Amino acid sequence: MPTSPHPARAPRYDAPLARLRSRLRRLYYGDGKAAMRFQTAALTVDLAIIALFIAQPVLKGTQAFLAVDYSVAAVLFIDIAARMLAVPRPFRRLRQPLVLLDVLILVTLLLPYALINFGFLRILRLWSLSKSGRLWQPLKRRGLAEWELPARAVVNLVTFLFLATGFIYTFFFRQSSGLEGYLDALYFTVASVTTTGYGDITLEGPWGKLTAIVVMIIGISLFVQLAQAIFKPSKVHHPCPQCGLQRHDPDAVHCKACGQILNIPNDDG
């Protein structure tokens, strides 16, 4: 019986997965219209998740707590899995600190009662978005890259405020459940960071004093960083080809670090 000169090829079972990974890669990292709409929608979902993180101490005593918690966990799991599929080497990505942070946050969501003392770490999701650059893509697309530095400073300060608030609420104010205890923790954090020191709410014991000291020191540093980002002369992002310095004055002709001649583009051509 004659055989065909072109034997049938084995079916490619990985073809649908390859197409899915390619499509996810275009959506997450492309610059087309569909990709931009997808990235904007993903960022909106991320910000909504962060808002739920902040409100979660208030939701703990309600019947909707577990439903909200597991819904957020499902969305975060899908996002982590999709981003891993979108890169060529997903297991290498899994070793990155920001991805490990998202996995830790996911674990606290899946075990909300067992890991209740670590729930305040979820606000670090905002810092993770800032470090990954996903928060600043809309600014760069609209030609507002100069606002990225002060916006980063604001995000760092807000992240610290709610991270400290969550920690203080968990370890010092949880007995006052619900909104009252959380507001007391937020009030104490803001009063400490601004060094107002009204003294009407204090943390008891040596650990309370140490916590207040850390909050004041880090808070002052972040306020200084924010003030510098807002009031110092604006810089442009233009890496020096000689020494690699990233930011320069808009009208700079030479790199202030090594003297290399620069050719910084501007709106005048």
TrEMBL record:
Coiled-coil ranges from the UniProt annotation: none
- Residues annotated as domain Potassium channel: 158-230
* Bilayer-spanning residue ranges: 34-55, 67-86, 98-121, 153-173, 207-227
InterPro entries, per this entry? K_chnl_dom, K_chnl_Slo-like, K_chnl_volt-dep_EAG/ELK/ERG
Compartments where found = Membrane
Q: Which Gene3D superfamilies match?
A: 1.10.287.70
This chain's protein is named Two pore domain potassium channel family protein
Q: Which organism is it from?
A: Jiella sonneratiae
